């Protein structure tokens, strides 16, 4: 039996670890893994394999799995906030709240595993008030709050915005769990605005 030896490569050990933008690659791989299987299945070792780097390489960018999940959640909140802002500004002020609500339900339905990481994991609850994650989470409430406040007194408007937010969150969660089967358009009709 003949064994063939691998050709020696010209890359040095140092070059073998160079990946370009590994942090971004890991975040993209994490989002894909979370979308497909949920956050509970995510490991830094599996992400390293997907990125084609040594198992120790992710630790250059993230201290641990929770730090990686926090970074994914922050990016998720930023994308969510941008989605809501675009909806808010896409037409007349009169229809802004309904557009925000539709965008909220759409984002939740299309990104349910990311949404669960953002809202149903312990990440936000365990984050400090001044953390980047907490700030990103609260910023996602701003587009709705801003539009509701335009229509009334600030304390009552804030309570109204919380009630709408709670309804939307409930709709997304109940749909994801298979307990609501109505399409988003029907759910929007049921919102107490």
UniProtKB/TrEMBL annotation:
Residues 43-62 bind DNA. The keyword Transcription regulation applies. One of its GO terms (molecular function) is transcription cis-regulatory region binding. The keyword Transcription applies. Keywords: DNA-binding, Transcription, Transcription regulation. Residues 20-80 form the HTH tetR-type domain. InterPro entries: Homeodomain-like_sf, HTH-type_TetR-like_transc_reg, HTH_TetR, MT1864/Rv1816-like_C, Tet_transcr_reg_TetR-rel_C_sf. It comes from the Bacteria. Pfam families: TetR_C_33, TetR_N. This is TetR/AcrR family transcriptional regulator. The lineage of its organism: Bacteria, Pseudomonadati, Pseudomonadota, Alphaproteobacteria, Rhodospirillales.
